Amino acid sequence: MTIQLARKPAEVSASLENQRVLLIGARHGVGPAVSAALADAGAVVVTDDEVSGSGDPTAVVDQAIERLGGLDVLILSAPPVRNKPVLEMTPEEMRAVVESELVGPALQMQAAARHMAKTGYGRIVAFMSMSGKAGVHHGVAPYAAAKGGMLTYMRVLAAETAEHGVTVNAIATALFEAQTVTMTQEKRDRLRTQIPVGRFGYNEEAAHAALYLASPLAGFVTGECLNLSGGRFMD
């Protein structure tokens, strides 16, 4: 095993200027906010909806590398939760959830990590639901299981790629403002009382967290899952 000597913190920049980034899930969830923040930070961004799709989930990674001339950062924005009681789900529905929420993203992270390991630098950031850690929501059993699997997968991948200058981290979100707009005021008020900071989160706050983990500053952070829950969930 060859351990690379890292630069001292004073020599590391927070800038994402000219960093080549693939953002998967740019249209949903926190994706638009992350995309805007990356652009403001000077990154060169390709999104999954800008490259042609195929049955192979890794094709988007390969095409992004070709378009960008390399890949420094991969960010995966979590798709919407599919709510349905587990007792009512068919085997096909359960397999589809696990395939899209675990298998596909895991293969994309693998493809990106292989490229980054060859170049000696890379950042992978995966958004996931807090249900993957806490399993507290009804109707999301396969989704929560898949995200729990993603958390473990992320940590193993982080351990295996750390010596190559690649960091792999996750961000777990819970109760963001955008998720509560269809709720009754009574439910919003009740849920707000469960959050120590007294409010719901904002997509822009998720984007700020992603920018840090995607930046050169986060070289000593890997295999971690950052809770964005306003203190509702703590490790």
UniProtKB/TrEMBL annotation:
GO biological process, one term: fatty acid elongation
Gene3D superfamilies according to UniProt: NAD(P)-binding Rossmann-like Domain
Record-level Gene Ontology MF annotations: oxidoreductase activity, acting on the CH-OH group of donors, NAD or NADP as acceptor
Stated family: Belongs to the short-chain dehydrogenases/reductases (SDR) family.
UniProt-recorded name of the protein: SDR family oxidoreductase
